[in-house]
Amino acid sequence: MKNIHTTAGVPWHVSAFRVEAGGSGEAELVGRVRELRARILFDRGRRPDFQTADGGYADDQEMDFGAWHFVGRREAGGPPLGYVRLSTPETGALFQTRAYLGADLYDDVLRENGLGAAETFEHSRLVVEHQARKLGLGIHLNAFAMGAARFLGAKAMIGTSGTADGQDRFHERFGFRPVPGTRRYVEHYTEDVVIMLYRPGSSAGEFSGLVEQLEESFPTAVVPAQHAGLDAAPGPGPAPQGLVRLSSTRLTASAATSGDRGSGACWQSVLFTPEREQDRIGLQSLIDSGEVREVIDTIADQLTELVTSREPRLRSVPDAVQRAVAEQLAGTDPQEYGTWVWYPWSGRLVHLLPREEFRLVRTDRNRGRIDRAQQRRLLGRRVGIIGLSVGSSAALTFAMEGIGGSFKLADFDSLSVSNLNRLRAGVHHLGLNKCVLAARQMLEIDPWLDIELYQDGLTDDTMEDFFTGGAGPIDLLVEECDTPYVKIAARERARALGVPVIMDANDRGLLDVERFDLEPDRPLLHGLLGETTSGDLKDLTHEEMVDVILTMVDRERISPELTASIVQIGVTLSSWPQLASGVALGGALTADAARRILLGQPRPSGRFYTDLETLTAGHRSTVA
What we know:
The chain is of the alpha/beta class. The protein is 35% helix and 17% strand. The protein contains 21 helices and 20 strands.
């Protein structure tokens, strides 16, 4: 059995065993496994169905026979503190996911993802005792099951995940992705449940290194079922040799510093978690490299914010705050708590709380307008943004407000001097692709955002990948590009996929909303272009392009200033006039609409004007 250091330096002892149907010994062992699971799942009455009438605990599932079982302890011979199950295709007919979806829909999900039942494993029943949850046992057990599945040749892992406490987001950190349309409330678990899918051949997200290590360690953790009693644990096996390999987002110091800060390729933040040995080595190497220009470490203040955001009344009792901080640290050195984030383009190294705690504090002032459950839902959504000039304001507002945890950004253009009148940028950014600029700024707000860039803009070749590929399909499109063909082509694809579209026209505060998710037959742009298709808009002259854009925004409703400017474009004006105030307003309007749409609140299709000149006219003053 392996002895691996994880969160807070705790060595976890994990035994893996497989139980075949048979004698009384196997049945007795499975009974103890089921009782352990059920007691933890009961969770002090949260899930009452796991307690029996006589006060015992039951979680009887036939699939326990034939499955791999992993039990975690803090020390050899200690009590079991956590558990996870890995089921192989041999028991596929009994999978929880198959029962949850029904046989036909389950087969459809596999088929749509190019998978077969004979290559799909299921991992389930990840449970951890309360006292071990902050110490990383759940992470370790989850990674162990994934490593074992890789070792055993799985091409896919599928499973059900709860959502009430962010279990689905926990699995997303390992590379699992929710299967669209599978979320629903399950009385047995007293919460919404969603199907999650992972391909072991791809990255395991934040924990790729740990999963790779445990894949190699799996054989030495296996014990015979008859020796896997839950009242004791076998002695530890040999410690793992060598260093943990880092995932693509956990670069070594040399990889993190090799890129030119000003180059378009340099836009990803690099995360180091000091509790991981290799991350400590990488972090020290980075510091020793001389590439770090500035270190920002306010972890003490962040911890204070964390405990007082949970319990605001503590603010008036300094001693209570300090006790709460000490309890939060649980003996961990503050320097090793949380995550250090390296921004290669600026040379800054920043110490932050762990992801979930950071996001809880960062969005704390949203509460009262966005509650925490809604915030979690928003952070689970994926947003596409086309056009990062006007669209940059939307992207940054979304990031600040926590609308979306994953983004796809598309723009072929680079920042020029004339863009500085409305984009939040500096002269040192000139020549930088606008996608890269937006991604850097968003990651400086939340370094855990999942961002994909399309630096050649949205083209026929990248259209499908932008909407459905990469990290997954988008839930919402913000369209802010200048090219009529792309505007219509993107809407055609959005309508076909049922993706709602938002646009800000940057004149008179025009907000345009098309709810293709609710109205699959809705005319594009509310029918303003009639039956025009994207194919009709290729190879337009400048004059034709201007005419089409004016039709799109309704030339009868544009502002007098824009009306007067149109005839001067190309004569005395180089392009369409735009102001920073209008772009900032557009960010606010699109963010408000997006939040309502993604939370299922009322936000109908249509066109809406927030004309500041009209709304702030003298006669509208409320002061006598």
